[in-house]
Amino acid sequence: MKKTLCFYFQIHQPVRLRRYRFFDIGKRHDYFDEYVNRSTIRRIAERCYLPMNHLIMDLIKRYGTNFKVSFSISGSALEQFALHAPEVIESFQELAKTGCVEFLAETYAHSLASLSDTDEFERQVRRHAAKMEELFGQKPVTLRNSSLIYSDQIGERVAAMGFESMLTDGAKHVLGWKSPNFVYTNVMNPRLKLLLKNSRLSDDLTLRFSDHSWHEWPLTADKYARWLKDSTRDSEIVNLFMNYETFGENQLAETGIFEFMRSLPEYIFSTTDFEFLTPGEAVKKHQPVAPLHVPYPISWADEEKDITGWLGNELQNEAFEELFKIQPKVEALNDPELNEDYSRLQASDHFYYMRTKLFSDNDYHRYVSPYETPYEAFINYMNVLSDFIARVEDMEKMRNIASDNITEEEKSPEKKKRAPRAKNEGSAAKTTKR
């Protein structure tokens, strides 16, 4: 039986906040920096999304159904594509028509909602899945949570929603001696199959490809194909999960990353026994080898592969608690403007900017943050959140007052029926007197 190579790409862009000061609270509710959002989307579309989609289409035309990939695209990214780069959505729709691309479900806003005790996680996933059907004609069967965040409890929840499989990281502290190159199951509901990221081989592209100090630089397609072949001598599948922005944005075109990807399938087909499959196909082909016990949430971030990049200090935890404390009220009000702002405020990026821990790749993360310090990120976010919470509470009060003003006659159907007769009788009496 052929070995499986599963390529998955994440595409996410947060709706970035403008600088929102304390004195703006209660005075203005335009939280987002439209200029920065537009310019960022246009830049990355031209560097990454459009040329890489064109490259993948060329590979599909060349190899047909032998070449397959998968994507998850956050709702916030799709909304910004629609506003600032609609041709990006059109290019993904063309890829969808080939039948060689699987679109995965995720949280609509690239949210941390799965770590809260609210129903927001399921609401966002369903909203995102509906968007995938609307835009790409696919009902997702595979879920990828924000930054591959996963635990036994999250997996059980995902299984209950009807998904067949889920992606997460092959974290060493979870796997122990086991290999990420097999299919596993959720320990609480074995119907949910798990595909695990091969971190070393994925990070060779995302982090090390252009690093001249790396002892394996330069990385060529034939060398990488050999590594893939060697990695599965005693296993079945290699899952390469990465940010799509790796191509052209994080690893610039000058590094040769596009040429590498264009030539890689040729070496895969000519020197290995791999076949390209999507996640949905991979879990149908391979039988799970064991349940995977993950009592505490893991992710694909940092060396620790945990959630401390988002919820590792008091600033982050306070912002997270305040954000999800207001969720039941936002859901009850169901106001379109509040819903949109609430969704955008959930993007995990806002919390990542508040991190204070150090990373092995700290220089890169400092580069992508628009703030000078984590504290500055916290203050800006909490100013926005304070105004948003005040709006929610004001709307709730207004609706309660409106409800209290309903008269007993309006509440009681019987009184409403009698009231017109009394009024008519009075009018008739006055007419007779005249």
Automatic annotation (TrEMBL):
Record region (Disordered): 402-434
Glycoside hydrolase family 57 N-terminal domain span: 7-290
Name of the protein in question: Alpha-amylase
Signal sequence segment: none
Lineage start: Bacteria, Pseudomonadati, Bacteroidota, Bacteroidia, Bacteroidales
GO biological process, one term: carbohydrate metabolic process
Cell cycle keyword on record: no
GO terms, molecular function: catalytic activity
Family: Belongs to the glycosyl hydrolase 57 family.
Pfam family, one: Glyco_hydro_57
Keywords: Carbohydrate metabolism
UniProt source species: Butyricimonas faecalis
Listed transmembrane segments: none
Superkingdom of origin organism: Bacteria
